[in-house]
Amino acid sequence: MASTTDTQHQEHAGEDGPPEPAARRRGPGRIVAQVVSVFGELLITAGLVLGLFVVYSLWWTNVVADRAADEQADKVRDDWAQDRVGPDGPGALDTRAGIGFLHVPAMGNGDILVEKGTSMKILNDGVAGYYTDPVKATLPTSGKKGNFSLAAHRDGHGAKFHKIDKIEEGDPIVFETKDTWYVYKTYAVLRETSKFNVKVLDAVPRESGKKKPGRYITLTTCTPVYTSKYRYVVWGELVRTEKVDGDRTPPAELR
């Protein structure tokens, strides 16, 4: 039989002595909880960073691009109003500021300034650009048969072709220059093709069903939305031209 002193010693050993096995198992549990907590905080931080990037890509770049495009468009229209000529003299096409404006009622985003080239430097300013490479576009102002091929962003940086999927066969596409309205009619849509398919830009775009030279327009952009995996293509054919009057009255398709 244990003495009172021995009993007290055993009680104190149970209270103040080494931790029981169950208590020892709680140590690693706390470490795991801390790791999970830190990992969760990192995920939250990463989510916030990603969210800010999305806001920047899909909203702020649009704001900046639209501002740049508006300034450049105002300059073009002011030059037209003042009857200023380009650096190469009267009658020469001045491609530095922009050659005209694209109007596509089905997309519902007003006039789109058209400039020379399809590099990111050009398109990021919220404009459409006509191809100079790998297939050179034929400008409608030349009066020649060919393909007036254009590109613009579908998301971010102005997203001028964001609603290209709203264009249907029969819809008008109008190109406005200083002196002339060029009225095209949509006749074919290719909703997905390889981004390396440059045949859609050919002077005679056979993939659209055409077999003979004509005066065509081609709109291209990325697809699906928010990716650049494929290309979306819309083709139109010139149906008539109208001279610009003193009030710049738009053609019936834009009224």
Automatic annotation (TrEMBL):
Active site per database record: H153 (proton donor/acceptor), C222 (acyl-thioester intermediate)
CDD domains referenced in this protein's UniProt entry, alphabetically: Sortase_E
Gene3D superfamilies to which the protein is assigned, alphabetical: Sortase
InterPro entries on file: Sortase (IPR005754), Sortase_Class_E (IPR053465), Sortase_dom-sf (IPR023365), Sortase_E (IPR042003)
GO molecular function terms listed in the Swiss-Prot or TrEMBL record: hydrolase activity
Claim: Chaperone is one of the keywords in the record: no
Domain of life: Bacteria
UniProt keyword Membrane present: yes
Parts of the chain that traverse the membrane: 31-59
Pfam families (UniProt xref): Sortase
Region (Disordered): 1-26
Record's keyword terms, sorted: Hydrolase, Membrane, Transmembrane, Transmembrane helix
Name by which UniProt lists this protein: Integral membrane protein
NCBIfam families: class_E_sortase, sortase_fam
Organism for this UniProt entry: Streptomyces ambofaciens (strain ATCC 23877 / 3486 / DSM 40053 / JCM 4204 / NBRC 12836 / NRRL B-2516)
